[in-house]
Amino acid sequence: MNIKAGEIVSIRHCSGTKLYKSIVLDTIDDILSVKLFEEVALLNCSPGDPVVLGCELDNEVYMGSCNLLDIDKDNNKLSLKIDNYETITNKRLYERFPVSFYADVRIGESQKRNLVLVKNISINGLMINTKFDFPLYQELKFELHLDIKLHLKATVIRKSKDTNNYEYGLKIIYTDVNTPKLLKKLILILKQEQEDFIKKMKEPN
């Protein structure tokens, strides 16, 4: 995906309730500077947050999983580092789908809720960012903050830390036969929403 200055892209951040139309101002390798058409102040952003970037190139819809590097609220600008990107045409459900939304997490049988940011999700697992330090192989219970009410149980199988957050890779543990169907429906809804928004962005006003 060769994004150039002037490209129209979509931005999704967990603090917003929708996708945001934006324009690429500058690119250096995997670092992008984008300007939102709406107020950045509408988003409650922090460096290290996961951000989803979408665009259409050569009639293909691409999704990029990004980390937020910097925010310039006065000029409605975000600086993003692209971790990975790929076309979402015929994307398989076991592959990670880039997202950005909140989830409540409980450790084992504890009732204490810890707020985390979900960075990507698939039918088999998910990746989260948080300031909380969870041990490897810890079992976590998730409640996702989305239109579809979804509870998941998952085990930490990978852990790393950068300047801002811990990042965890988790494997989902299914205990209810209906949960995979709900998760599949959720991923398909997010995919369709992203495709529709990007196609609409390209239409003349």
From TrEMBL:
Coiled coil: none annotated. GO terms for molecular function: cyclic-di-GMP binding. Residues 90-187 form the PilZ domain. It holds the Pfam family PilZ. SUPFAM superfamilies: PilZ domain-like (SSF141371). Gene3D superfamilies: predicted glycosyltransferase like domains (2.40.10.220). This is Type IV pilus assembly PilZ. It comes from Pseudobacteroides cellulosolvens ATCC 35603 = DSM 2933.
